[in-house]
Amino acid sequence: MIQSPFYNLSEKAEKKLTIILLVFITVLIFIMHYLDIQIQKGDNTKGIISFELAKDLSKSISILNSWNILSKISAGISLGLDFLFLIIYSLFISLIIHKLNEKLWKYKKMYTMGIVLIWCTFLAAFFDIIENIALIKLLLGNLKQLWSSLSYYFAVAKFSLLAFGISYIIVNLFFIIFKKIVGKLS
User: Fold this and answer.
1) 31 is in which domain, residue-wise?
2) Is the residue at 109 inside a domain?
3) Best label site of 120, 160, 164, 185, fewest CB within 10 Å?
């Protein structure tokens, strides 16, 4: 049976790690948002996400051509920071899933689903690495359809896996709130 990578963490260590990851993820989101504003030009109205989801080379080239030097530097820094961000977000999301899983589903059938989603979050981070490498290749002038396709398909897979994990978190948080409300009414 697969286990959570956090199963040996004490409650105190979990709490400390959650706070540290939350601080890092918040800081990185603000920095990356600032950089993203610098690249929202022309065909790239959604910033780096437009570049990630440019399925064909002509779209990637159009985005690259819409950028000035500052935009290209900002995109490069953003892609570099994303290597740190993917470690932080995968740990944070996985840890939250783990905490909810332990609280709500330990010794129940749903527990396995949470464990699978934890590992899927790390798989999403791996997909993010492949996507970033493809985007860096394009940014550095290696203009091949292969890089646009790799970026697109791995970005879609990454976003899909993360959507499942985040949905699991949201549904379980609502479940906790519902249980508390019902408990107070009883």
Assistant:
1) 26-185
2) yes
3) 185
